[in-house]
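Much of our argument rests on the idea that a fold can be written as discrete symbols. This step matters because it turns folding into a mapping between discrete strings. The record that follows shows the chain in one-letter code together with its fold in token form.
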Amino acid sequence: MDLTQGSEEKKHGRAKKMMLWFGIISMVMTFAGLTSAYVVSKNRPDWLTDFELPISFLWSTLVIVGSSLTLILSKRMIKAGNRRNASAFLIGTLILAILFVVFQFYSFSEIIQNGYYFTGSESSITTSFIYVLVLAHLAHLAIGIIVLLVLIYNHFKQRYKAGQMLGFELGATFWHFVDLLWLYLIFFLYFFR
């Protein structure tokens, strides 16, 4: 038995986890900067104080929280050796992710129907910030959906099992981060108007 190979795998695993956390920290800093600019801009005289977020943002919040729960359940099923249920929960996570995107674009259409635009004479600094925050999150969510597709592909190739979960754990960590990021944004937008 080659002990150096086991320690090499652990080193690679730690390096992959560290790179993921560096990426997450940079994303946190990006959104911290955007939300800080939002707070500073609230003092502008052209800031909208009566702007209401669409209720569909709340529905999308429930959906994305549900997607984290189904991903947690899929991990448990993989570790338990229950591939069928793991598959169902993974596909359920993907469906919920797509439903989240649908709700986001429905929310944008509601904002536009209410006469608020991203740019142009009908836009405001308030709505521009909301569009930027949500679209930046959707860009990260698009990466998250790609991650989910990779997880599903690798699951069907039987690459995950108890004791061999690094790739799944990395993907799940990113997905849960994207979910938590949305929770931060939605609470921020509701409470810092």
